Task: structure prediction
Amino acid sequence: MSAALTQAAAGVATAAPLVATQRSGGVLVVTLQRAPVNAINDALLAQLEAVLDEVEADDALAVLHLRSACKVFCAGADLSLIRSCVATAQGREAMLATVRRMQRVFARLEALDCVTLAELGGAALGGGFELALACDLRIAADDVRVGLPEVGLGLLPAAGGTQRLTRLVGHGLARRLILGAETPDGAAARALGLVQWAVPRERLADEAAALARRYGAMPRLAFAENKRCIALAGVPGEVGYAAEIDATRRLYQHPETKRRVAAFLDKRAPTWSTTPESRR
Result:
């Protein structure tokens, strides 16, 4: 575990590592391991924040690959915590503070200028699927269950779920899925556009790792510019088109782009530079 995560673990109620990291080239594999179901609490959020600090500070990282060591990817907010909190006004405010923190952490994950990939090898429900929705890419096993079933508990997906799912699949389908508390399996989720890939369970780990390596071989600076322009696609007018020109100008001037274009024209593999200046 990285020094940042060790320090974060020391600052919360438990010293147990709830999040583990392993780096391979430009890929940082982040594994959730709060048994049994990676229920989200303040300790887990603190360690996720430490990971985000690390990724934001290291321009040599091109991919954050999020996965689980548990049978479940992530079951969302800790229901035992909710039950203990909702009995009093003070407890309800404390729970709302945790939900606000989830919003902030997931927003930081969404805003990273590298590629983020969620590997769903187990159920991703409620806040767990909200976490996955904050990632750029999602690959799931065919048989896992995903979704936002909070309405069945008299709640709503308040860590960004109503917003991100609606932007992803549109108002009509989001209403169907959220209001109906639907939890489709991975294959159906792929057909609905909730995940980009669905594969047999026995192939998931290898397929996800291959995707991470593929994206990890591309430059973070280009990811950053492309993600900014994609985010503007829903803005009316010419803002997105102007952003494309501005981003292209910056990329034309960048040494890493020049190296890659030259390598392509010379029909050779691009020279890879790992200095921070080459990735910004």
Remarks:
- The mean pLDDT is 90.
- The chain has 13 helices and eight strands.
- Residues 89-111 form the longest helix (23 residues).
